[in-house]
């Protein structure tokens, strides 16, 4: 039987850190090591596969496991290849040690545990003597943690959104028609997430006028303006927590994630960049949410040189389709829950506060749910880990659900 622990360890020891929009480089960055590993694994298993270039050094990888029953539907399995950065970790991020039934390392929980479960599930289905009534399209996507560009590239294979890239030919041929449903790997604790938040993220550029710090009155300190903007953002963030507090996904939120400005203590800075994350409850519009922030900042900083860049992330959350799409997603959620309970574990259908690739696929007309081993509480942490037993249960549940 294919070993889920060994597969997870293989993934964790291969760094795939997302630069998160920063101008950084090094052996731990980008997803290429995982992509190459998947190519080798699919080739060894005899699965047809294709690369889909998304950005320099960043390729989605697709593999197809055909059904053995004529006229079978296709179900999408998706797991992202990238992880968040490793700064501040208290463990070796790429040394997959197991202690007390937990494997530790960057990405172990988010989302290499879920990817391992899907890889193991695929290979067990290949080796099974039972008929396969479903074709499975597995996609390993890039840049989920920062921009969802990998998922958007996959979705464009069916929707045509964003045009046709010259490098998409092999992926488009392999992907075929739009899947009837999709499962997105994320740490849900073996529950099934059928609804989650959307997000809009963008940068604010605050301008000023530089001068020598011995005559600061001759300049226009961009940090002071950015500070006033930050306080306005904080006030709105507190207000948002009082809106829709009983929503299944939690209230809408706003977070100022990064702020960068200044070149030296003896220079009055003329430029500051802020990055914002506005989380949306399903039904909120990204542009309307962003416009509210723009208004509040303008009121706090009248006359200031402030530019709001176009969003680098903008999605409506899950569900984002019509009633038929949501119903199909519910059917898939129920089937996965039954499969987990068949393994002796509790599983419920619930909502989540975070966002995933699922919203991109749902917007492209693929009824989608989120499922996987591990807890979101361990994702992105300084000592990230996952319960190894949950990875095995998730693999078994995926196989059972497809049967």
What's a quick, concise take on this entry?
The chain has 403 residues and is an alpha+beta fold.
How would you portray this structure in words?
33% of the residues lie in helices and 23% in strands. It has 403 residues and is of the alpha+beta class. The chain has an eight-stranded mixed sheet, with helices on both faces. Strand 1 (49-55) and strand 2 (58-65) form a beta hairpin. The chain is globular and about 80 Å long.
Report strand order across the widest sheet. Answer: 1-2-6-3-7-17-8-16
Mean pLDDT across every amino acid position: 94
Q: Span from first to last CA?
A: 18 Å
CATH-assigned homologous superfamily of the largest domain: Zn peptidases
How many E-type strands? Answer: 18
How many domain units? 2
CATH architecture annotation name of the largest domain:
3-Layer(aba) Sandwich
What's the structural blueprint in terms of helices and strands?
Blueprint: H1 4-12, H2 32-45, E1 49-55, E2 58-65, E3 74-80, E4 98-99, E5 102-104, H3 108-127, E6 135-141, H4 149-159, H5 169-175, E7 181-185, E8 192-196, E9 198-207, E10 211-212, H6 222-240, E11 253-261, E12 267-268, E13 271-280, H7 286-300, E14 306-308, E15 313-315, H8 323-341, E16 349-352, H9 358-363, E17 368-371, E18 385-387, H10 388-402
Parallel strand pairs: 3-6, 3-7, 7-17, 8-16
Antiparallel strand pairs: 1-2, 2-6, 4-5, 5-18, 8-17, 9-13, 9-14, 9-15, 10-12, 11-13
Helix pairs in contact: 1-3, 3-10, 6-7, 8-10
